[in-house]
């Protein structure tokens, strides 16, 4: 009894340490923008010429006239500008939770948005247009013909609201403008609602403009700032006023339009070669994420497994509940809770990397716990009885007799879990983790190609998992050879 309770105490302390210390240790890496002179800009860099990706001297950079404005604001504040690129509909939560200090993303100051954030004076005005395939141009002379059409819009944008007002229209709301254009090219949608300045960059022999949207839907753009941050608000307005008086903004728009990427027609090998550094970075992060995910996952899995096999009922219950809940909910949902939920509700701001590692560990912990349990229960009961009859305590029998055999038996299953994690880690790209999957999307956005960037990603994932499974096969053979000695 004494032994058990000591064990229980040790386990509990360990779990408490792990669940509190690890996140805190990981979280200490987050940027604290109040003390250091950093200005974190949130933007959705899919909106040329406002903000977009462009390879300059072999490096991916975010450029555009919004970015130039942000640089001027940072300069006036004497701060260093840091850019966070994310989906347009992630910008408001990012600003509210303090993940970014300001949002410049061609964002229109609507009444609805004004309820959750503040806006600067407006700095730009644009019209709404309808993009269609050139062959369909005459089908849509006015907005009225869009009734019942399949229409693409950006998720969370005012274009989505305009689309919702069209009777019978089937809306496809996507994260990135480039995705919408791809959908239009591939005939998944009939039309897309976008701003004229942005549409200009996509017009070619396939895509053209149809009906004009009535003028009352004109959209202005302003800088979004967290409610109550009046100091930043007046600083931003000051900079905007200066830029307007120097007639700089028009100049910036012209410059950015010139910078806008021409379309590139390259084959898969050329794309791979040109963007190899992107993919290399992606591989680094994918491996880092997966390795740490497995390591912490093994630790969590062992603890949960011991809980599940414990004599104390409440621990058994906790172990079972953990496994059932984690296995019974999608990893994407868990990721959203850890990344956005913790930040909005408890003020714990994990970086994308931290949130990714935590999600993967928690998740694989549940699966590994089951693998370990199967391993331990698979060891013949007689082994335990024999050990006990030789005078070994329960703990010692576990450590020296059961666990080594169990471990060997479950090694292939652990290997499979590692391979699964490498693939599953691609989910973390949705929060902006620069893994292989994320880099593939970036390359897609730059090259306007929908297939090749992902084929390259698939090949890379395959090579990684294939090498890993060969290595694991070797290790297994080694271990079983040592058995036969
Ligand atoms: N002006 C529109 C809005 O506020 C669209 C802005 C989209 N911006 C972007 N960076 N994708 O809803």
Please write out the topology:
Layout: H1 2-27, E1 38-43, E2 46-47, E3 51-56, E4 59-63, H2 65-77, E5 80-85, H3 91-96, E6 102-103, H4 111-114, E7 117-126, E8 128-133, E9 150-154, H5 158-164, E10 170-174, H6 177-185, E11 191-195, H7 196-199, E12 207-212, E13 219-226, H8 230-245, H9 248-259, H10 268-274, H11 276-308, H12 313-327, H13 331-346, H14 352-378, H15 381-389, H16 394-424, H17 436-447, H18 452-484
Parallel strand pairs: 1-5, 1-6, 9-10, 9-11
Antiparallel strand pairs: 2-3, 3-4, 6-13, 7-13, 8-11, 8-12
Helix pairs in contact: 2-8, 11-12, 11-14, 11-16, 11-17, 12-14, 13-14, 14-16, 15-16, 16-18, 17-18
The site of arginine (ARG) has 15 residues, from strand 2.
Description:
There is one protein chain. The chain folds into three domains: 33-121 and 221-262, Periplasmic binding protein-like II (D-Maltodextrin-Binding Protein, domain 2), CATH 3.40.190; 128-217, Periplasmic binding protein-like II (D-Maltodextrin-Binding Protein, domain 2, 3-Layer(aba) Sandwich); 270-484, MetI-like fold (Orthogonal Bundle). With 485 residues, the chain is α/β, with parallel strands linked by helices. It has helices at 2-27, 65-77, 91-96, 111-114, 158-164, 177-185, 196-199, 230-245, 248-259, 268-274, 276-308, 313-327, 331-346, 352-378, 381-389, 394-424, 436-447, 452-484, and strands at 38-43, 46-47, 51-56, 59-63, 80-85, 102-103, 117-126, 128-133, 150-154, 170-174, 191-195, 207-212, 219-226. It has a five-stranded mixed sheet with strand order 5-1-6-13-7. A five-stranded mixed sheet has the order 10-9-11-8-12, with helices on both faces. A hairpin with a 3-residue loop joins strand 2 (46-47) and strand 3 (51-56). It contains 18 helices and 13 strands. Arginine binds at residues 44, 46-47, 50-51, 88, 105-108, 154, 157-158, 177, 219.
């Amino acid at each position: 009894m004494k032994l058990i309770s000591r064990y229980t105490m040790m386990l509990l302390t360990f779990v408490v340490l792990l669940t509190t210390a690890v996140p805190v240790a990981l979280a200490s890496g987050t940027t604290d923008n109040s003390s250091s002179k950093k200005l974190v800009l949130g933007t959705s860099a899919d909106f040329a010429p406002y903000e977009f990706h462009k390879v300059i001297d072999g490096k991916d950079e975010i450029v555009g006239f919004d970015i130039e404005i942000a640089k001027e604001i940072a300069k006036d504040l004497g701060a260093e500008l840091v850019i966070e690129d994310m989906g347009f509909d992630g910008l408001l939560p990012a600003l509210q939770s303090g993940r970014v200090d300001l949002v410049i993303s061609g964002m229109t100051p609507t009444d609805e948005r004004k309820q959750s954030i503040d806006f600067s004076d407006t700095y730009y005005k644009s019209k709404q247009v309808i993009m269609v395939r050139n062959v369909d141009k005459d089908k849509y002379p006015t907005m009225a013909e869009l009734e019942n059409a399949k229409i693409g819009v950006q998720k969370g944008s005012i274009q989505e609201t305009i689309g919702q007002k069209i009777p019978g229209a089937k809306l496809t709301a996507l994260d990135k403008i480039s995705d919408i254009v791809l959908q239009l090219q591939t005939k998944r949608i009939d039309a897309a609602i976008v701003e004229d300045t942005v549409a200009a960059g996509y017009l070619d022999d396939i895509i053209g403009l149809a009906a004009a949207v009535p003028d009352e839907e004109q959209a202005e753009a302003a800088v979004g700032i967290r409610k109550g941050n009046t100091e930043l608000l007046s600083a931003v307005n000051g900079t905007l006023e200066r830029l307007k008086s120097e007639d700089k903004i028009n100049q910036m728009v012209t410059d950015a339009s010139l910078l806008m990427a021409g379309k590139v027609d390259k084959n898969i090998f050329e794309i791979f070669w040109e963007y190899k550094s992107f993919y290399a970075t992606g591989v680094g992060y994918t491996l880092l994420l997966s390795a740490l995910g497995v390591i912490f996952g093994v630790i969590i899995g062992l603890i949960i497994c011991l809980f599940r096999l414990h004599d104390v009922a409440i621990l058994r219950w906790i172990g079972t509940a953990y496994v059932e809940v984690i296995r019974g909910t999608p990893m994407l949902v868990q990721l959203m809770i850890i990344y956005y939920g913790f930040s909005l509700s408890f003020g714990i701001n994990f970086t994308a990397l931290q949130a990714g590692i935590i999600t993967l560990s928690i998740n694989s912990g549940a699966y590994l716990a089951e693998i370990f349990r199967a391993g331990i229960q698979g060891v013949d009961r007689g082994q335990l009885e024999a050990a006990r009859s030789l005078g070994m305590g329960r703990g010692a029998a576990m450590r020296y007799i059961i666990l080594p055999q169990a471990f060997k038996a479950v090694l292939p299953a652990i290997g499979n879990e590692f391979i699964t994690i490498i693939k599953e880690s691609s989910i973390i790209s949705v929060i902006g983790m620069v893994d292989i999957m994320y880099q593939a999307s970036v390359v897609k956005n730059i090259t306007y190609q929908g297939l090749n960037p992902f084929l390259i990603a698939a090949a890379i994932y395959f090579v990684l998992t294939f090498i890993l499974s060969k290595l694991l096969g070797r290790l297994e053979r080694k271990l079983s050879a040592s058995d036969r000695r």
